[in-house]
Amino acid sequence: MKSKIDIKNELDNLVIDSKFQPIVSVVRKSVVGLDGISMGADLNGKFIPLNKLFYYAERSNCEIDLDRSIREKIVKEFNKICINDDKLLFITINMAVISKFVGSGIILDLVNKFNINPQNVVLEIYENNIENVEVLQQFINSYRSKGFLVSVTIGSGSANLDKISNVEPDIIKISESITKDIEMDFYKQEIFKSLVNLSKKISALIVADGITLEGQAIASMELGADMLQGNYFGQYEDINSDLLSSVEEKVHYIASQYKKYKTEQIEFEKSNHKKYEELLNNIIDQLSTIKESEFTTKLNDVIARYDVFECVYVLDESGMQVSDTITRFRNMLSQKSLIFKPAKKGTDHSLKKYYYFLENMGLNKYVTDPYISLASGNLCITISEKFKGINNKNYILCIDFNPNYINL
Prior knowledge:
GO terms for molecular function: cyclic-guanylate-specific phosphodiesterase activity. Helix content is 40%, strand content 23%. By secondary structure, the protein is α/β, with parallel strands linked by helices. It has an eight-stranded mixed barrel, surrounded by seven helices. Strands 10, 11, 12, 13, 14 and 15 form a six-stranded antiparallel β-sheet that branches. Strand 1 (15-25) and strand 2 (30-43) form a beta hairpin. The chain folds into two domains: 2-169, EAL domain (TIM Barrel, Alpha-Beta Barrel); 268-401, Beta-Lactamase (2-Layer Sandwich), CATH 3.30.450.20.
């Protein structure tokens, strides 16, 4: 059946289906771009999915002709609505096809045909296993020199980090494999933040893709996304002015919800800060009136009363631990306990951030970024605060918290 369709002779009869999904900026409260794709084409009343179209095209040796026809339909439809507009058009570039025709200038000719500024076109490089990196870079350098922007997607498939170094993208899309459940998954949040930090260093913008829920949208913005994309704002569909208007209503709603979230977050953090400040002061008051030899006994009482603490211990002014590490984790898995063990009395902490930043920066209190605790194997935040003992000796109280329980 497949061999009976000669796409080369049927190209002019194909009715190519093009769909668009909005890409939005909540900060600008607007649709800033459209991601154009094709689902396939209709041929004599029968719909042929895109993968089958390229199967037939490959057999007829006309992949580039089909690729060009699809891209022209996308650009043509985009231009009907976004003429003389500043919106970005995202076009998927399949390097498996394009690499055979590098230097032909077909994409530049196409945007010139429809009077679209190349600076408004984002070429999304699609190919996880690029065999000829030199051809890829030649293609990118050629089109970037004409003003085109280049994008890669991170989070699905293989060789993702290689793609960043090979492509040197202007835009990084973070895929649904990372943004799914990001509003509740701490590890995905940290991966997202790492990509945001990387993007800043290489002067790239971040698009959070796969957004289907309000919570995902707000979390992605909070983590540093510049733009959002996903079914929450609109599925891939035919482009029209009504589509853009309905999307902008959702963008304005998310903007108002994000503003509300930030207001509530500030109030929550103020309340939390006061709560933990009082808690630390209470513990220090108790420690400052007893002998150093009694610290461990007192800390056992403390850990029993406050279940938000993971570990508590005291250092002297040189960074040496003068109490036991008191922890709630009594029955750690044997295989885990070989790696993660609470520090013992006499351990030197002078190279730990919660000590040397406190000392070298002249601070009275220091709060670390989240890190893996060597005491428990869990993610934690350490708060260290100086205090004086009954003999006027300087000490440092260190408390490890689960980062989900505290915002300071």
